[in-house]
Amino acid sequence: MRKMLAAVSRVLSRAAQKPASRVLVASCNYSKDATFEIKKCDLYGLEKGPPVTTVLTREDGLKYYRMMLTVRRMELKADQLYKQKFIRGFCHLCDGQEACSVGLEAGIKPTDHVITSYRAHGLCYTRGLSVRSILAELTGRRGGCAKGKGGSMHMYIKNFYGGNGIVGAQGPLGAGIALACKYKGNEEICLTLYGDGAANQGQIAEAHNMAALWKLPCVFICENNLYGMGTSVKRAAASTDYYKRGHFLPGLRVDGMDVLSVREATKFAADYCRSGKGSIVMELQTYRYHGHSMSDPGISYRSREEVQDMRRKSDPIMLLKDRMVNSNLATIEELKGIDVEVRKEIEDAARFATTDPEPPLEELGHHIYCDNPPFEVRGVNQWIKFKSLS
Amino acid sequence: MAAVSGLVRRPLEQVTVRDAINQGMDEELERDEKVFLLGEEVAQYDGAYKVSRGLWKKYGDKRIIDTPISEMGFAGIAVGAAMAGLRPICEFMTFNFSMQAIDQVINSAAKTYYMSGGFQSVPIVFRGPNGASAGVAAQHSQCFAAWYGHCPGLKVVSPWNSEDAKGLIKSAIRDNNPVVVLENELMYGVPFEFSSEAQSKDFLIPIGKAKIERQGTHITVVSHSRPVGHCLEAATVLSKEGIECEVINMRTIRPMDIETIEASVMKTNHLVTVEGGWPQFGVGAEICARIMEGPAFNFLDAPAVRVTGADVPMPYAKILEDNSVPQVKDIIFAIKKTLNI
């Protein structure tokens, strides 16, 4: 019956020559939700893990699809803007890893906290920054979320603490945010992300130790995209089982290319923390299509075939799309319609990001101190002074 | 009784620098429950130098936290907690160990308000003993005033006496910015008289304001931390010879109160700076540079002179150590040289 209705809807929409969203389709043509099997997580120090099936509602599916597509197109636009020299300095793109940021967000509450590394644009968006404010920050304009003062690696919004340029520094910071959650007794948790490269930082081990000792509500998430800059995991780590590297902390290894797996694992980990059991480690197995940053073509230390293979077999957006279409949660036309809308949103944001003026020079000295009376900041010589306001 | 002395106020009595800091922290812990202290041995040991004596008994595990020996980790945890709305006091057992955590102090704490365009503040205090002690040799004797004073986004204070210690730690805790408080181990046990204002729970010393400890007319002597006491001793000796020194206690390294120093130099026409840290790229070097750039330069009758620690890693043998830190005689010598006496 469902298949017949789907076929009818396809015929109708083709016949009408209109985008699927504008075709009058009876609501019973779509399923309200569908159940999917997800990969079982590898467990460490845990008897039970996240469920192996999950229910995806049509509404959630469309939301995740739109969000992942937005992150994808935003990162590709950043690539373009960088090559056009609108973006300078560092630009670390996360296309390929969309299921991580969108899935994590789906597994926590807006009142929970998140901190990550410099490959942050995806989480900047899922945590609530608009594409406009992200792109304008990348192009260094006054409409950027950090007023053009921070750039790619230093974007913040409530309950999102960046964007951190120093590899691994966000580990202890995240544990500290979790400490604040426990201290305040508000049942909030902190997701503390770091990459496979950062996993070898001593301060990550220090953070694990204190988080375990004090049972901080911290989910340590190792986003393992197989390469720390140009160094493969095998060449950097004596143990590449990052989900076990918390030693005394329980851990799970998750398919980071499947947004539903990430969602369920995150929910599981969040519940674990919220229940007062302490910290937990989650390894997301994922992949970045771009090189380490815009100055890295990404093929000197890995093969083109490997990248293409990942795109073909494991692309997170493709995986979700196939699931939704095959389960009648959406039609291809409808998803194409979303694509069109997302492209437009990105184009508008890029236009803003390339036309908004740079921050005024007078503001160079601002934001040195918080809640401070105005004072003067020295410029490049003793005669040049900038007023500093908080 | 001794264990309680940090918690009970005694009118018009002598209070050691240690007890002054203890009082200051105690009052701020009581006033605002977001304030907490973490560091090595701060809780059950009562503090490596007993500065936090009695606080754990009073406030418990939640607010006085013993950490493992993980400076980079616990400094980062403290910064994260500050970002999330708490007001941590992060103790480094000495500032020598802060070098392991310096990335968190500078890159995570100091720069964040600016990088975030004024969105994310970091209300944290980093405190602990700084500079030379006695016989602890090279790795435990470095002064970090110049290193931290170099960085925009940080406030750096350096108390000398008990009132400084209490007023500055309280201001630091109430400040919504990262503040580095450079204490001095050799001063911890030194008693000073507490004025009645200093005994108040709201006694604050403003960050960024120097204090003229002694008025004078012949020469300006500027210092911070323990050497301020040496400068006052030198001034007493010189007074008998008819030389009146104006001794300025900087109190704050950054933002530096250069105006007070300039006004004094414009009065006395001579300047000597005194510090415990190494000479190159130091606090005295900065003062001299700024004097040259400002109105006071034209009032100098002689080049400004710096008295500093010797330009060596701190040696151990007493004779070597004594000659590696500025003594009263060295300050007197420099003053007389400047005055051409």
From TrEMBL, chain B:
Any GO BP annotation: glucose metabolic process
Main location: mitochondrion
Enzyme superclass (EC): oxidoreductase
Entry superkingdom: Eukaryota
Gene Ontology, cellular component aspect: mitochondrion; pyruvate dehydrogenase complex
Record bears the keyword ATP-binding: no
Chain ranges passing through the membrane: none
Transketolase-like pyrimidine-binding domain sequence ranges: 15-190
Keyword entries, A-Z: Carbohydrate metabolism, Glucose metabolism, Metal-binding, Mitochondrion, Oxidoreductase, Potassium, Pyruvate, Thiamine pyrophosphate, Transit peptide
EC number: 1.2.4.1
Job of this protein: The pyruvate dehydrogenase complex catalyzes the overall conversion of pyruvate to acetyl-CoA and CO(2), and thereby links the glycolytic pathway to the tricarboxylic cycle. The pyruvate dehydrogenase complex catalyzes the overall conversion of pyruvate to acetyl-CoA and CO2.
Protein name: Pyruvate dehydrogenase E1 component subunit beta
Source species: Suricata suricatta
